[in-house]
Amino acid sequence: MATAEQRKIREAPERARTVCLLRATLLIATSYLLIAEAGWRGLGSGLLALLALGGLSNLAPMWFSRATVESNRFLALATIVDAAWVTGALLLTGRLEAEFFFLYFFVIFLAATGESLRWIVLGSLVVGGGYLAAITGVAGSARLADHSLFMRIPFLFTIALVYGHLVERIRRERGMAELERRAAAQSEARRVEAAEANLALEREVAERRRVEEELRKFARAVEQSPSAVLFLDGDGRIEYANPRSAAITGMSPERLRGRALTELAGVERGGESLESAAAALCSGVGWSGELALEAADGSRRWLALELAPVRDPLEAGAQFVAVGADVTARIEADEALRRANLELERTSEMKSTFVSTASHELRTPLTVIRGVLDLLEGLRGAALTEPERRFIAIARRNADRLTRIVRDLLDLSKVEAGRIELRFGRVDLPPLVNAMVAGFEATAAAAGVRLRAHFGRELPPVWADTHRLEQILTNLVGNALKFTPRGGAVDVRVESQAGEVQIEVADSGVGIALEQQRRIFEPFYQVGDGLTGKSQGAGLGLSIAQDLAHAHGTRIEVESEPGRGSRFRFGLLPPGPLAEEATELEAELRTLRPYPFSCLLVARALPGSEGDRDPSFPILVATFLRECMPRQSDRVLIQSGWGQVVLLLPMTTREGAEVLATKLRTALATLGAGRDERLAGVEILGPAVLPEDGRSGAQLLARAVVETRAEAA
Amino acid sequence: MSRAKILVVDDEPDVVETLQFRLEQEGYDVVTASNGLEAVGSARIHRPDLVLLDVMLPGENGYRVSRILREEEAAGLTAPRLPIVLVTARDLSSEPDRERMFLEFAGANLVIYKPFDLNELVEAVERLLEARRAA
Known about the structure:
heterodimer; A: alpha+beta; Beta-Lactamase; five-stranded antiparallel β-sheet; 23 helices; rod-shaped; B: alpha/beta; Rossmann fold; five-stranded parallel β-sheet; 5 strands; globular
């Protein structure tokens, strides 16, 4: 049994085609009958026109849409048109028998009802009967004998049956084919759909696997990271802690979880970074700094921490990721260094105070001793016996010596504390040296030593403090005389050399062994017992001379060999910007003592660049670098001069200086470039580690400058 | 001409005795004091012609005592144009700026550093008294 759906499929699309087919048949049949009836010649122009109209109306469905062609209205119209032309043709041929008319309606009926073969047969019988009745009624029984009429009846039935059958078959086949096609299409669609679904599923699984693998990779990286990695929630509580952070703090990840970062942090260095970190957590911004964490065993671990907010568009509130490195060792080393330096500073201060107080305290008794000796001598006058007079002289000489020692001690403590005022000016060396030599003539003559001064040609004046320079020379010459045997010579040479004035005091004395050369400038150091076998001073002369030389931004060098005499020499700069810079720098250095400068950085514009040609550029660089310096570094000395900027870092390890150098380079490249593009072209050289005594900063600087200049050239 | 009177102020009896002996040898009248308060009282009573003033005194230090003496002088309680010589073990000769600052603060005429030579001290005293007489 055909279902409703199948019937619908079978019926709907074929009606138009069937109608066309039948109408075409009608047209052919009509033409045939007319030609058979009237013959070719009998076809007048009127008949031909009617046949043409029928033909055209048969072609009409070609110009209309299928829906229109199948509509009842179109069918009715077609029926009327066909009725019109067929009727017209019948009228024109004068054959009023209704054969074509019935034939026509019979066929139309078949087509319009589209019903089964059963109905066609039934319809044919009914219409055929009616037809016979009509002919008989119209033309009388005589017409029945008409051969042609009888001939037509089977012909018409045959046509009707054949077409009816054809229509039925075509319909069925089409219907079935359509059904099959649809079913096939449906099953194909289902198959494709299933395949697609399968493929999508597979893809999804692969993607998930990939994501999982990626996640595992990330997790492994985080787990095995050499840095401490923490995930914090919006409140700064730890959601995740990797094993490294557990190792640093000595707490298991489980113990760390849920605790606030600020709760773990102990008292922080400088007192601010914990607060600023907490503030950053509250306001959801990034932060970096060093935090001290209280480890499980109560010890303090330092973490250099970078905090960065992680924003998730799906979740309100920021989360944080914190990456940190254990810098406890570095910070403890820094702390130790700082403490050691502080200790050094305190010791040095104590020593200074002690020396100062002690020497003051010594002065009053010395005054009394000398006064009393004077009085004794004055009272007894000529009545003194020779031994008495000699003893008084010995007592006075020793009191005088003690007085000198006390004075030297005080001088030293002042120089060390940076408390002597130097008054720099142009100094012509020849008169000064000659006067000094003249002052020593008596001593030299008594010691049997030849003392002479030699001057080179074209001596420029030097930039120095006359009084202090005299003191340096006096100490050097006095020292030389003391260690030169009778018949020896002490020569003072002054000559101009490489833009400097070199002053040398050479003796033909006992000389100084190499291992002693390093120590002779230390306070209280005595080289043997001198020539006389008697200690003649407190061993402060050279130390004071060296300190005063430092105050001039220079350094006394010694060259000696035991038995072959010694040469002490130092250089002074002629008046000019370089000399002023060096002495100013030295003065600044002295205010910072006893902080030893441990490292040095040099910032300078690339040679030949625009900044290099601008003499005021170093000032700009120095200003910028001062702004960039981290806090707690107020003791960094930043000095511009010699076309570059020098940074002296006190109490810094090489690593610390390198970190600072990197920071400054970054600052120059980013912030600096934004302010003045020439700043981006500034390079930071160093760090150079200074010798431990750190007392000759200016001299070292001068050397560093000369070296960098040579490199640049 | 009456003998000039000198006030010696020092908390060290040995220093006082030495100075007193030497100055008396030179023919001066010497009065002594061992602290600032005593010195100011003594300056009112004895009206000395010159004061040798130690700086490191118990109580008010020499600089302040010197200032007080200048105020006393302005009030007519001591001799006019009183020469004041500060004696101190704190040698500031290498720091001329500070030396000048202290002298100005104290309003003193001269500073002598310990240990001093008695003869030089006597010469300085004579010079100051001479200058005062000449004025």
